[in-house]
Automatic annotation (TrEMBL):
Record protein name field: carnitine O-palmitoyltransferase
Domain of life, source organism: Eukaryota
Record-annotated Choline/carnitine acyltransferase domain positions: 129-703
Residues passing through the membrane, by range: 59-81
Active site per UniProt: H424
Reaction(s) the record says it catalyses: (R)-carnitine + hexadecanoyl-CoA = O-hexadecanoyl-(R)-carnitine + CoA
EC number(s) recorded for this UniProt protein: 2.3.1.21
Length: 744
């Protein structure tokens, strides 16, 4: 911009329309001479000081104007892009029917977007999450609870909502709008603090979640080799994470704020609230094996070690015969129990000396690695039972052989199977799923293994040994570790996990029925719960709000009037089931779209509740709404990088997805991943202590519900195709008869 301005001035033209002259008049004078812009460079022969001073001031004025012009252009570009990205009508259009407005909008987004954006290129251009009108939120809330309440209960709740809106609600709304004016996102900071960091119970099972390896394939049976490739793939992802995140298959950017704390991050305990600590970089990982902690440097002189070198170092750890120090083996149990005792112990015994240095090595590590001495996966004579045990192992392990405070931990089993356990406060599952997809694909298809199962590459034998961490753990710390382990073990033993691949059909057959796969599965889950418990319940489905800056999640209340009407009709064997199902499917899709575009229910009510607590006022309505249990909590694990997996040539490399623990003591947690065209993997969790829930029973109900609905839709498709074929045959016969008449 500066060169262009100076070039036009050299051609004796003023592109600033007099602004450069005005800027020059306000510049400080040198030699006490009046700053008069020359008529043209090189014209006339004034005295040398005056000439050099005038030309210098003209140059400086042109540079100031160029800078202001450049800043104005950048800000205008960002403002235009923010206005464009605030348009969400494209999401509500029917599949295959794109309006002209949306087509123009896509063209403009491409025009204003960078061709090769970096991770944070669009952050300042993303729109802020809007605060919905309180009347709209209350109306949507009442609609969502209508199928769950009797007439008297619904009338009472309607009165509570009306009283809240007319009295306290509008006051809270004003404060919330005030926060939305200065905050980047009016939800995310409170959501992170009050839902995650202020929770004083164990984060293991209750908050952390897991991701699994390939279902049918283990790339290598060599534990050290699998660890070498997995660690390398994760560090390659960290190097490449500066690429921009987009909605898959579109030009629409997503907020990338969650990627910032993926590596080198730890949740540290506090007495009232935990804190997320993030370091800029880390050149080592923390490793746990057979009760011992190690620091493994993965860079040497700025060079990332090769997979073969990391395997060599991992094998050194596995071959190390040294026993654990007193209290070292079960030290990780402190991160699995209640948060307050861990915070107190950490402050008292890990604030100085050798314990602080060793704890810093774990907390500042890029991530945590557990070299497990067990074998896991779908193997042996009981593959179904082994999958369930595999899920429990990743969710909680032995309750002391994971460091649950790390942003994520990698588990490498003795037979080469792998998995992941992630802490929830720093990011949501899609961000971690993106990381894990890349890791699995890079491990299997890019890095690869030799014929004998080892990593590829050469080894520099002069590598220093992995550093064994030292500890001085007194009896008080050991006693607290045992106490935390008892709490964690009781929680782990109570979890009932069931993982099963549904192979009868997948999204390919569902799409042929012109139904959204997610809507199909969610309505099937409603039917399964109705058959399992004999009624309906408040259902949570997580959707993202990353179309907005620093957006995280919003709740889709999947149990709707339309889905309940369909299920009652199906169980009553009524004739209008197909019509009701399509109506329920369309309703679910609309609910999901509204949640993604900032018109959800629960985050708005949650923030109003937080404002009421800040102001010290009580609301019977908000208190009752936020105390309602989510007895069916569901989440879809999205497949975001299918192009990395060559399923045509390698159909066995199918991901199992991941899962989480139950949210309610008397409820179910259900996670599912739609893999390819012909499979859906389910992860079901519940608690043994509740006699009314059973994960295996519910899993069987899910399979039955999916097949029953598909049978219903297939019969509808056959009826439609037969009627269309009969109508086409009748039309062809009538046209042939008319031809015959003409011939006669």
């Amino acid at each position: 911009v500066a060169i262009g301005i100076l070039a036009t001035m050299y051609m004796q033209s003023d592109p600033s329309m007099g602004l450069i002259s005005k800027i020059q008049q306000h510049l400080p004078l040198r030699y006490g001479l009046k700053a008069t812009p020359p008529p043209g460079w090189g014209c006339g022969f004034p005295d040398l000081p005056k000439r050099s001073n005038s030309q210098g001031q003209t140059m400086l004025s042109a540079l100031v104007f160029s800078t202001l012009l450049w800043l104005s252009l950048i800000l205008a570009l960002r403002f235009c892009l923010k206005l464009l990205l605030s348009y969400h009508h494209w999401m509500f259009e029917q599949h295959g029917r794109v309006s002209n407005t949306t087509k123009v909008w896509v063209s403009l987004v491409r025009l204003f977007s960078s061709r090769k954006p970096l991770l944070y290129s669009y952050q300042t251009s993303l729109p802020h999450l809007p605060v919905p009108a309180i009347s709209d939120t209350l109306s949507r809330y009442l609609e969502s609870v209508r199928p769950l309440l009797t007439d008297p209960e619904f009338k009472r709740m309607t009165n509570l909502a009306g009283q809240f809106e007319s009295n306290l609600g509008n006051r809270l709304q004003r404060y919330l709008k005030l926060k939305a004016l200065w905050a980047t996102n009016y939800v995310s900071d409170w959501w992170e603090e009050y839902i995650y960091l202020r929770s004083r119970g164990p984060i293991m099972v209750n908050s952390n979640y897991y991701g699994m390896d390939f279902l049918y394939v283990t790339p290598t049976p060599v534990q050290a080799a699998r660890a070498g490739n997995t660690i390398t793939a994760l560090l390659l992802y960290r190097r490449k994470v500066n690429r921009e995140d987009r909605v898959p298959g579109t030009v629409i950017p997503l907020c990338a704020a969650q990627c910032e704390r993926m590596f080198n991050t730890t949740r540290t305990p506090g007495t009232e609230t935990d804190v997320l600590q993030h370091w800029q970089d880390s050149e080592f990982v923390a490793v746990y094996n057979k009760g011992r902690f190690f620091r493994l440097w993965v860079y040497r002189a700025g060079r990332l070690l090769s997979p073969r070198e990391i395997e060599y170092q991992i094998q050194r750890i596995l071959d190390d015969p040294s026993p654990p120090l007193p209290g070292e083996e079960r030290l990780g149990a402190l991160t699995a129990g209640d948060r307050v005792p861990w915070a107190q112990i950490r402050k008292q015994y890990f604030s100085s000396g050798v314990n602080k240095r060793s704890l810093d090595a774990i907390e500042r590590a890029a991530f945590f690695v557990t070299l497990d001495d067990e074998e896991q996966g779908m193997k042996g004579d009981d593959p179904a039972g082994n999958l369930d045990r595999y899920a429990k192992s990743l969710l909680h392990g032995k309750c002391y052989d994971r460091w649950f405070d790390k942003s994520f931990s990698i588990v490498i089993y003795k037979n080469g199977k792998s998995g992941l356990n992630a802490e929830h406060s720093w990011a949501d599952a899609p961000t971690v799923a993106h990381l894990w997809e890349y890791t699995l694909a890079t491990d299997a298809f890019q890095l690869g293994y030799t014929e004998d199962g080892h990593c590829k590459g050469e080894v520099e034998r002069s590598l220093p040994h992995p550093q064994r961490l030292s500890w001085e753990i007194p009896s008080e710390v050991q006693a607290q570790a045992s106490s935390s382990l008892a709490v964690a073990q009781a929680l782990a033993d109570d979890v009932d996990c069931h993982v099963f691949p549904f192979r009868e059909f997948g999204k390919g057959r569902i799409k042929k029925c012109r139904i959204s796969p997610d809507a199909f599965i969610q309505i099937s889950l409603q039917l399964a719960y109705f058959r399992d418990r004999g009624g309906f319940c408040l259902t949570y489905e997580a959707s993202m709000t990353r179309l907005f800056r620093e957006g995280r999640t919003e709740t889709v209340r999947s149990c709707s009037n339309e889905s309940c009407a369909f299920i009652r009709a199906l169980e009553g064997r009524e004739d209008q089931c197909r019509r009701l199902f399509r109506k329920a499917s369309e309703k679910h899709q609309n609910l999901y779209r509204m949640a993604m575009t900032g018109a959800g229910i629960d985050r708005h009510l949650f923030c109003l509740y937080v404002v009421s607590k800040y102001l010290g006022v009580e609301s019977a309505f908000l208190k009752e709404v936020l105390s309602e249990p989510w007895r069916l909590s569901t989440s879809q694990t999205p497949v975001q990088q299918m192009e990395l997996f060559d399923l045509k040539n390698h159909p066995d490399f199918i991901s199992l997805g991941g899962g989480f623990g139950p949210v309610a003591d008397d409820g179910y947690g259900v996670s599912y991943i739609i893999v390819g065209e012909d499979m859906i993997n389910f992860h079901v969790s519940s608690k043994h202590s509740c006699k009314e829930t059973d994960s295996h029973r519910f899993g069987a109900q899910i399979s039955r519900a999916l097949q029953d609905i598909m049978t219903l839709l297939s019969a509808d498709a056959k009826t439609t195709s037969s009627s269309s074929s009969s109508s086409s045959s009748s039309s062809s016969s009538s046209s042939s008869s008319s031809k015959d008449k003409k011939l006669l």
